[in-house]
UniProtKB/TrEMBL annotation:
Record's keyword annotation contains Cytoplasm: yes
A GO CC annotation given for this chain: eukaryotic translation initiation factor 3 complex
Location of the protein in the cell: Cytoplasm
Homology family: Belongs to the eIF-3 subunit H family.
Organism: Cyphellophora attinorum
Identification of the protein by name: Eukaryotic translation initiation factor 3 subunit H
Function statement: Component of the eukaryotic translation initiation factor 3 (eIF-3) complex, which is involved in protein synthesis of a specialized repertoire of mRNAs and, together with other initiation factors, stimulates binding of mRNA and methionyl-tRNAi to the 40S ribosome. The eIF-3 complex specifically targets and initiates translation of a subset of mRNAs involved in cell proliferation.
Domain MPN as annotated: residue spans: 15-164
Length: 371
């Protein structure tokens, strides 16, 4: 039975990334750590699935060791995807790819992060630039170097929601506009599922690797040390990492908790700033009301004496209402707090699961175990 074809403007449902492309992103981000690493992605859009077939890093400006710790350098690296010089670099690169008959369709960009710290204004401006200037159907791949270094690949795909794109175009993130539009911090980014794709020759090679357990070369271990010192594992280049079996707490849990506290403190500062604005606005409005009441009384007295009334709109020249601060930074910080909270939940869940797995061996002999 033939399946119905999806329209060309069908919304993106998933992201498919070539395994070789993932390895290139991991290597580039690891080499540039702890500074930012960014690059652009090429591929094709096929029936609601965005296929990422290759990735290329943006050129890096080498600076002195002292200048690498300055804040402008960090901002320049984070803003590389929307830089004018890199726009020409991408166009020239895509031209060369077309000449050698390689996928040359721009499908997005990628960036590195540390412990999930990527929800900021630079990230939003880069993705907004890509979705507005290049193509609406582009994504941003976020690679967490710290999490990947522990043997857990952290690669996520995000897009800006259409609702946030419209709000960011108007640049009116006031309390009244947000209340009318119903835009929340959870509506800023849309995450898409990622699947990895291997070439057929790679799948053939992996299927030919003998199973050590079925061949009996790896006996049932009694500890992690037995696995790591087994000759069959030590001599195998494709042997997995057993760091995930350690019972110690995740080393990044404390750092993520500190980042979460800092983000909450930043949110508290933003709330205090908005409260100060409301108090200043209330004081100015009270002064304006007093002035208007006084002017009405003066005009009433002048009317009795048959004198021309005084203008009642002079308060606009005498008083200036404070400008309402943008709520965009507060929304991004709240979204970052949610990101940190999810990471802490994941860290704790993994550690708790391992502790329950060995709970029987941790109890003293004869101690009753709870149901």
């Amino acid at each position: 039975m033939a399946t119905a074809e999806l329209p060309k403007d069908a919304p993106l449902q998933a992201i498919q990334v070539e395994a070789l492309t993932v390895m290139k992103i991991i290597k580039h981000c690891a080499d540039r750590f702890p500074t930012f690493a960014t690059g652009f992605l090429v591929g094709m859009d096929r029936e609601g699935t965005l296929e990422v077939t290759n990735a290329f890093p943006f050129p890096v400006i080498d600076l002195s060791p002292e200048a690498q710790y300055e804040q402008p350098h960090v901002n320049a690296a984070a803003a590389a995807p929307r830089a004018k010089a890199n726009a020409g670099y991408q166009a020239e690169y895509l031209k060369v790819l077309r000449e050698v008959n390689i996928d040359a369709n721009h499908v997005g960009w990628y960036t590195s992060c540390n412990l999930g710290n990527f929800v900021n204004l630079n990230f939003i401006e880069n993705q907004y630039h890509y979705q507005r200037e290049l193509n609406e159907r582009v994504v941003a791949l976020v690679h967490d170097v710290s999490r990947t270094s522990q043997g857990i690949l952290s690669l996520r795909a995000f897009r800006l929601s259409p609702q946030f794109m419209a709000a960011y175009k108007e640049s009116k993130f006031t309390a009244d506009n947000l209340q009318k539009s119903g835009l929340k911090y959870s509506d800023i980014l849309v995450e898409l599922p990622i699947t990895l794709h291997n070439a057929l020759n790679v799948n053939t090679f992996l299927s030919q690797i003998p199973n050590m357990l079925s061949n009996g070369t790896l006996a049932a271990p009694t500890s992690v040390s037995d696995i790591e010192h087994n000759p069959a594992v030590a001599q195998d280049d494709l042997a997995p990492s057993f760091n995930a079996l350690t019972l110690s707490n995740d080393p990044f849990l404390s750092q993520t908790a500190d980042n979460l506290l800092d983000a909450i403190e930043t949110h508290h500062v933003e709330s205090n700033n908005f409260s100060y604005y409301n108090r200043a606005l209330a004081r100015e409005q009270a002064k304006i009301q007093q002035w208007q009441a006084k002017r009405k009384a003066e005009n009433a007295a002048r009317a009795l004496s048959k004198q021309p009334p005084l203008p009642e709109d002079e308060w606009q020249r005498l008083y200036k209402l404070p400008t309402e601060p943008s709520r965009l930074e507060s929304m991004l910080n709240t979204r970052q707090v949610e990101q940190y909270a999810r990471q802490v939940d994941g860290f704790v869940a993994g550690s708790t699961g391992k502790m329950f797995a060995v709970r029987g061996n941790l109890l003293p002999d004869g101690a009753p175990s709870e149901a």
